[in-house]
Amino acid sequence: MSVYQSLSSSGHAASWKSLGLPGTGQDCSVSLRWENEGWTAEGSLGDDDAQFVLRLSAGWVVQQCLLFRDLEEPDLWLGTDSHGRWGEVNGAHRTELDGCTDVDFVNTPFTNCIPIRRLPLLVGHSATLSVAVVDVETLGITKQLQQYTKVAPNTWRYFSGASNCEVEANVDEFGFVVDEPDRFRRLV
User: Fold this and answer.
1) Is 95 helix (H, G, I), strand (E, B) or coil?
2) pLDDT tens figures, 109-150
3) What does the DSSP 8-state code read for residue 20?
4) Which residue from 12, 95, 109, 126 has the least number of CB within 10 angstroms?
5) What's 96-124 look like in SS3?
């Protein structure tokens, strides 16, 4: 159970200013709405007007991921059975993603809010997750291990071994990233 405040059923929104990361030249945002016993998150990834839709369970487990770049139909559609088996819209099983619990776009801090809200960690405790990291430009997806550590009640550290990148971020009362130093700063 989350230690963060529940989101209103009328929805929640956040946006961040990119602080000059390569490939993140524009601001990013997310808008969540409650529907059909889960959350639908729609957001922008800044570059190339890329948009995403994530379907999350009530417990913040990723169920579907759609990525739109320049077509009305999704450029990428992934779904999971919530047991770590991933597939595409055409039913093709993506065995290389088996075991992934989350999806990560480097162009937004929002995808880090998902495990932060879901993980019931005490201060000083960590969890290592298998994450499907999506390259928005190439649509390539790689399975990476990411470690989340609760440093303080409103501070988390996440580390990706594949990219050798560690970020310490402050979160608000809802578990949403406020800032990632040198990466993103919350606007709304």
Assistant:
1) helix
2) 999 999 999 999 999 999 999 999 999 888 899 999 999 999
3) S
4) 95
5) HHCCCCEEEECCCCHHHHHHHHHCCCCCC
Q: What is the CA radius of gyration of the chain?
A: 15
Q: What is the pLDDT of residue 70?
A: 82
Say which amino acid occupies 26. Q
Q: Count other C-beta atoms under 10 Å from residue 86's C-beta.
A: 23
CA distances from 147 to 6, 7, 126, 140, 166 (A): 24, 25, 7, 21, 9
Query: Which pTM value belongs to this model?
Result: 0.92
Ramachandran assignment for 49, one of left (phi > 0), alpha (psi -120 to 50 degrees), beta (any other) = left
Distance from C-alpha of 142 to C-alpha of 79, rounded to nearest angstrom: 15
- SS3 of residue 134 by DSSP: strand
